[in-house]
Fold this protein.
Amino acid sequence: MSMTLSEKIIARAADKGRVQPGEIVTCRVDLAMMHDSSGPRRVKPMLEQLGAKVWDPGRVVIITDHYVNESDPESLAIEDVTRKWARAHHISQFHEAQGICHIVLPECGYLRPGMFVVGGDSHSTTAGAFGCFMVGIGATEMAGVLVSGEIWVRVPSTIQVRGLGRLPDGVAAKDIMLMLCRLIGISGANYKVVEYTGTTVESLSMDERMVLTNMSAELGAKTGIIAPDEITLAATRSALSAATPWRGDDGANYERVIDFNANELAPQVAAPHSPENSAPVDAHADVKVDQAYIGACTGAKLADLKMAARILHGRKIARDAPLFIAPASLRIAEQAKQDGTLAALEAAGAKILPTGCGACIGLGPGSLGEGKVGIASTARNFKGRMGAPTSRTYLASPYTVAASAVTGRITDPREFV
Amino acid sequence: MKIECNRAWVFGDSIDTDVLAPNAYMMKPVEELARHCLEAVDPEFASSVRLGDAFVAGENLGIGSSREQAPQALMLLGIRVLLAKSFARIFYRNALNLGLPALVCADVDRIRQGDALRVNPLAGTVENLTMRETLDCEPLPSHLMEMIADGGLLAHLKKKLRSGGNS
Ligand code: SF4
């Protein structure tokens, strides 16, 4: 019986020869990741209530990113609880303010193809770019995993998204996802897995592939996944094992196959207040923006910063539309400093912020005041997410965000590359 | 198990976790956050909802983040049961794990603000006592109902841990 990639990983984690969509199975968790917001501060009282210990501290990773740059008493207390809990439970895989969890997790080499992973965050889907099956869970469920090392899952069916051809210059993986948000809808893949295949995906770097799996959360998907290839293996430094080829079988059953032609894709922009309100950039060409933001796990990796730098090279950002850039990790910031990307961004007038979730959740510089209009490389533009309830956020690729910061209105970046 | 609800609160599609549990209060204790639940959509909701009310929504209830404070806020405000045409996956699991029944009901459009309801999760029925009609909903699978009856995943695990098995 043929299985998809996700079914194979679930079957392995459930100790079964095969699984079928709809079946409920219990899986052993290879790795559990928490951050400061959903992690220790929430699970600590639960574990105390249970009087239970962490099943395997070596399989737990804690990465703080949500409140690391805040100085109010509540945020400081959250960071303190996190630190103490990690120490008390012998979690040595603890990364404090090193970057956003979904980026630091692979950076530190924790992900390998075929793993079954859970994370206390909805964008845990990001790890699928590394051939892992990683799902986001809430705090109580995390407490359950922490004491038992197990979780029940209903085996999801798989939607295959197949891209053919190469993206035109000035068009990025983000544009693919904004197009899919419109096509599939923000709940169109609820309970399902989206597997990305085809020559378009094969041609993308890991940084770009991570945008596809990251924003699978915006399709409502249980997770997103990409079969590992040479590019993945180089990034995870693992060898392809012939015994477990982590890819779907020929003849595996896909619930639906969605084809798109990358050659013809235009830059996309999602209007407030939903990622599914997307349209080709022309549709919003006259919208004036007060602020631009390149940040978050979705849109501030090295490739994203380089896209922005390419647009901004030799140009200045509009005086009335400041551009804030928060690199997704310290390592990325360091690389961008080394290779001159940060200097190029700063020369154009962009303001570089410390790493962390920041304005993506309406914290710190780059968040939006009352009635302000922003354009961001983040994943979500729900009402009030990036600041005041009356603010409005447009979502776009780093190319489009940078081009819009130059003109002060939503702008097609293809004019600039 | 029947759940008696004095009043239904009726909302539309895609009520997201950012409006249920606003970012600006996420670092606060959940009791404080709950007072701001849904304020971007209905500023009166948090102060008017009472213990024993039902929360009724359209498609995609709880879309967005994994924050458990979203269903927890509703629970703290007194909501006994969630009814929606569909739920976002993580929100759905979070609600059930907290012991808050979440039921998929295709006919929620027939429920009006303020209706009194009697919900039977195992049988999959919603009696609208005000309108005098019974709507069907998808029954909750028994393994989940068992956990909810115990009071949620934690209480369920506690019971299991006590009985010896390391679940
Ligand atoms: S950057 Fe934004 S989307 Fe990513 S983990 Fe942080 S809050 Fe979530």
The mean pLDDT of chain B is 94. Residues 3-162 of chain B form a domain with the Aconitase; domain 4 fold (CATH 3.20.19.10). The pocket of iron/sulfur cluster is lined by residues A 65, 100, 102, 121, 123, 296-297, 357, 360-361, 379 (CB under 6 Å).
